[in-house]
Specification:
single chain, 236 residues, alpha/beta, two-stranded antiparallel sheet, 38% helix
């Protein structure tokens, strides 16, 4: 298991919903911002369909606020929402274009994506939104580097990222997040209203479980706590 490259300064994390980043990569993001790297978030939706019993008109602003607070806990101060419909996001040319636009605008060397496979664990189907956003985002990295695919973006110079790092089951690389557990837990706790709606377990207990799952030791990687990624080489 190799170390995720860290000879970069600008990163972009793309996710489908508020909370996705905190479930998987918040500890890694905190490690990187503590190194002085500039990380930005782009979320396809505001998560407005994510709380049972609470109408989308109320849920969307609530979850947006929680995500902004969660980002600050790990040193991220630029969070963008694309307003795609939560639960109904399609892997469309429009989504690829909007993500390519964000990549050109933010010019990341590292792009972090979330598991877009059909299953996130054996016998566990992945969310349709996760599949759509992750696959569209991986394509959008190439789109952002090609002047002829979305010519309506011609006002933004093309940009080629160096890597894409994808969370999930097929990790090829990892980062040591042992010193970022407290910050990652604070980020998860920022989603307190969402976590409370998931079941009777206390929010603090649920948050601890989420962070422990995301930062377990990785086989073949010398760190007490780590987060694994599948690394895609885009340039260099």
């Amino acid at each position: 298991m190799e170390q995720v490259p860290e000879d970069w300064q600008t990163g972009l994390v793309i996710a489908a919903h508020p909370g996705d980043i905190e479930y998987e990569a918040a500890a890694a993001v905190h490690r990187w911002t503590m190194q002085g790297k500039r990380i930005r978030y782009v979320l396809a939706s505001r998560g407005e369909a994510g709380i049972a019993g609470l109408p989308p008109a109320q849920t969307g602003p609530l979850r947006e606020k929680e995500e902004v607070a969660a980002a600050k806990a790990v040193g991220v101060y630029d969070v963008e929402f694309l307003d795609y419909p939560d639960g109904r996001i399609e892997e469309s040319l429009a989504l690829r274009r909007d993500l390519a636009r964000a990549i050109r605008r933010h010019r990341p060397e590292m792009v972090v994506l979330f598991d877009f496979r059909d299953t996130w664990a054996p016998g566990r189907a992945n969310s349709a939104d996760h599949r759509a956003v992750g696959r569209a985002a991986l394509d959008a990295i190439a789109d952002a580097a090609n002047e002829w695919i979305f010519t309506e973006l011609s006002g933004l110079p093309i940009w080629t990222a160096r890597w894409a790092a994808v969370t999930g089951q097929a990790a090829t690389h990892a980062v040591d997040v042992t010193d970022s557990i407290a910050a990652a837990t604070e980020a998860v706790l920022a989603h307190s209203r969402y976590l409370a709606a998931l079941g009777p377990a206390p929010v603090a207990v649920r948050a601890r479980e989420i962070v422990e799952n995301a930062t377990a030791a990785v086989d073949g990687f010398a760190a007490e706590r780590a987060t694994g990624f599948e690394l895609f080489y885009i340039r260099g």
